[in-house]
Specification:
Length: about 300
Amino acid sequence: MSRCMNRRGFLKHTGLAGVAAAIGAGAGAEKAAKDPLKPLPTIKFAAMDVSRFILGSNPFWGYSHKSRELDEEMKQYHTDEKIVEILDEAARCGLTTVVSPPDQRWCDLYEKYRAGGGKLRIWISQCHASPEKMEEEIDRSLKYRADAAFIQGARTESMFGQGKFDSLRAWLDRIKNAGIPGGFAAHWPEIHPELEKRKFPADFYFQCCYNASKGEAYRAEERVKANETIRAIEKPVVAYKILGAGRLAAADGFEQAFNVIRRKDGVCVGIWAKAAIDQIRENATLTEMLSAKQPKA
């Protein structure tokens, strides 16, 4: 209940109190949860439109960034059937896009989901294999018809730290030469600006709001540095971990993110559906209303 009150308080404070009728508690909540929302605003990855709110998949695979116990609980909870339920709910809430590594379980599940008429139609592959297997993983993404692909943050950082820019460029070229948009993710705020200086032809970037690679720290000063990077990049940037892996209330995390990102940018957020699947609807509504308040230029 306190989480809902925080949300409603935020909406009232920002002049969005009417949103509470769509996502609030009480007698109308059950009906609202079943009604589809209109499509969310979109951003461009090259020529492809993706929803500004992209569904993250870390909870599906047990990456809680909190505890081993929660990791295991997430793994046990997310059966194939539960993942499909979440994908469908995301589509009902106006999302078009999900991010997931191209592990075989996901590839098989999503192929079946698409073939069965699943409505969340855009998959962005998060390639996280070892350097020796990265080309194989990119090729598997292509085989299973990923709509875009990027190199996962920890892998990007490892190669960046070793100065292996040729490998990063070769992986990006392999993605783009297949005819789909490609990019990079990073926790370190210095990486994407450096790749831009080196004229990497990335179509988009994923920037973590916290440098969680350093001991799982979630400090305000890290977010400040990430924000500077997001503002400096002219290509589309997707901010992720905007809720600090569940450490911030949705209203607070989304407000902070949308105070930084521009209309060309988006956010990627996973949800812990066992706690409340209506987090998707809440986050989608925040995305819609905060997008509407941003300057057009």
